[in-house]
Input
Amino acid sequence: MSRPSLDYWFTMGSTYNYLTAMRIQGAATAAGVEVVYRPVRNVAALTGAQSLPFIDGTTKYRYMWRDIERRALSRNLPLRLPVTYPSKATLLANKVAQVATAEGWAGIFLRAAYPLWFAEGKPNGTEGNLRAALIMCGHDFDRVLALANAPETQASLDAATDAARALGVFGSPTFAIGPELFWGDDHLEDAIAWAKTGRLAR
Amino acid sequence: MSRPSLDYWFTMGSTYNYLTAMRIQGAATAAGVEVVYRPVRNVAALTGAQSLPFIDGTTKYRYMWRDIERRALSRNLPLRLPVTYPSKATLLANKVAQVATAEGWAGIFLRAAYPLWFAEGKPNGTEGNLRAALIMCGHDFDRVLALANAPETQASLDAATDAARALGVFGSPTFAIGPELFWGDDHLEDAIAWAKTGRLAR
Output
């Protein structure tokens, strides 16, 4: 019998993905569920949207940050507001995540990079973020960046983005078990339960 | 010491509000939290959006129905897909909810009306829905409709909508404890915990 698994679709530009990145590996491992990391290019590439999911100055934008702040506090996650958003270097962050996925160290890369963005002022994909995160991951900056900037990495990321769009993924993070999608950090527990049992917990 | 309470902002046109309507009174009562029902006109009146929150034919639309289906199943809630959406009679449904709120029977009105929409093919606010729901509520159709169509009811609904917008409410359902907003059925437990303790549960 194969071990239950879920596909974890994400972009390193996603704010709510901070909450997921910090807990998915631990929660899934505790439940005996394997996490398959699936970075994509960005949300706009999935949906065709012309604008960001969250726009500064809107009530939804303010809500998003307060929502993240409350949950970060309750989970003892570091956070220093205001957080720079969006990160202009999201694409490079996702390319590095693609390299990390191919080499099997995506989990630690996410858990290193995100707190550097949300608590240390170094947005994902910027050189300061990548240099510090890659030291934490134990990987050489120049080697990883050369791989990240290779055409093969862009091609892999594009193929993953196409696959996500075909599956119906429209936001980050999304968890998929076959055709069943669960969108948002709030639904991680549902996704883990579904991976194990094919139904929701209650 | 006053009993903890939360404001439950909603519109009868909201799909996810089905999940909340069926459980909020029971969950809040069990936790010793009072529910203050606050119907609003519709989501567009809150956000200024020109389009519905969910558009037929999009991946997000398909996801929304599957998400509701899975949760309805896990909660033993009746559901017969496809559900007619949007209901063209949402305004009248919200006016009746406003009357029910003023008279203290909003909880049972929501629990009667929503299953008639989601399982019996009678969208909220249509005559078939209101006739059947008001019988379940033990109230006279003609009396309630006369009140619902009175200018005072429209004025109350408009005032509530303005208050919600001023608070930063942008979707339905939203739970508010003072300035703290919790958006979506998924966050009902967080809102109840916040009403009681001023923090999230974990």
Remarks:
- Strands of chain A lie at 5-10, 34-39, 174-177, 180-183.
- The radius of gyration of chain A is 16 Å.
- The domain at 5-197 of chain A is CATH 3.40.30.10 (Glutaredoxin).
- The longest helix of chain A spans residues 151-167.
